[in-house]
Specification:
By secondary structure, the protein is an alpha/beta fold. The protein has a single domain, classed as Phosphoglycerate mutase-like (Rossmann fold). Strands 3-2-4-1-5-6 form a 6-stranded mixed sheet. The model has no long low-confidence stretch (mean pLDDT 94).
Length: 221
């Protein structure tokens, strides 16, 4: 059996309405740094020395979120390609814009309801995002049995839950339903979900650490 603890990153500059940056380069705020220190303590107290592996995405904010915990347990982390956030707005278009403008751009993206639309050459479509998360779920299933801690992103976690519930992502109706779903369940900064995978049962996921609400970013959650 595999127990995978999914941790959303701490508050980022994008969460806090800061200047637009390339998604992969968005860093944590001072509040985010406090949050990741607290989740590192929680993980250590909850899991002790039973963790077999630590994983993060290639985006800086998940690596910054993981670092305090890595320092505690001394485990060399693994980078999982595909674990990064949904990059649905083109930085070529958001660069230099205000937070209010990016809010509007994000709303327009979701209202378009086109799962194969990409906002630019530096953005991905909803369909591509769905396939990417599905691929990482298969990667999780192939991991060795044991306890894994995975540092990832809000929309990514919502999509994983969506897929575990057996929901499809093939047309505009599903995109609209997913948007409504993710707004209702979006993980807060440094909340933790436990994904349990075993050969003789269906995947199960539940929230195991709840955090106070902080502003959610638009360009990358």
């Amino acid at each position: 059996m595999k127990q995978i603890y999914l941790v959303r990153h701490g508050q980022s500059t994008s969460n806090a309405g800061g200047e637009a940056q390339p998604n992969a380069q968005i860093e944590l705020t001072e509040l985010g740094q406090q949050q990741v220190a607290e989740v590192a303590d929680w993980l250590e107290e909850t899991l002790g020395d039973s963790v077999d592996a630590v994983h993060f995405s290639r985006f800086i904010r998940t690596q910054q979120t993981a670092q305090p915990y890595i320092d505690k347990v001394g485990i060399e982390p693994n980078l999982i390609e595909g674990l990064q956030e949904f990059d649905y707005l083109s930085f070529n278009k958001t660069n230099g814009t205000t937070f209010a403008t990016r809010l509007q751009m994000a709303e327009e993206y979701w209202l378009r309801q086109d799962p194969r639309h990409a906002d630019g050459e530096d953005a991905e479509s909803f369909h591509e995002f769905c396939e990417r998360v599905e691929g990482v779920l298969e990667h999780f299933k192939a991991l060795p049995d044991g306890k894994h801690v995975v540092f990832t992103h809000g929309l990514w976690m919502s999509m994983l839950i969506w897929q575990i519930l057996g929901q499809p992502c093939v047309d505009n109706r599903h995109l609209q339903k997913f948007r409504q779903f993710e707004l209702s369940i979006r993980p807060r900064n440094c909340e933790v979900f436990l994904l349990t995978l075993s050969e003789d049962s269906i995947p199960a996921i539940t929230k195991v650490r709840t955090c106070a609400d902080t502003p959610s970013d638009v360009h990358a959650t």
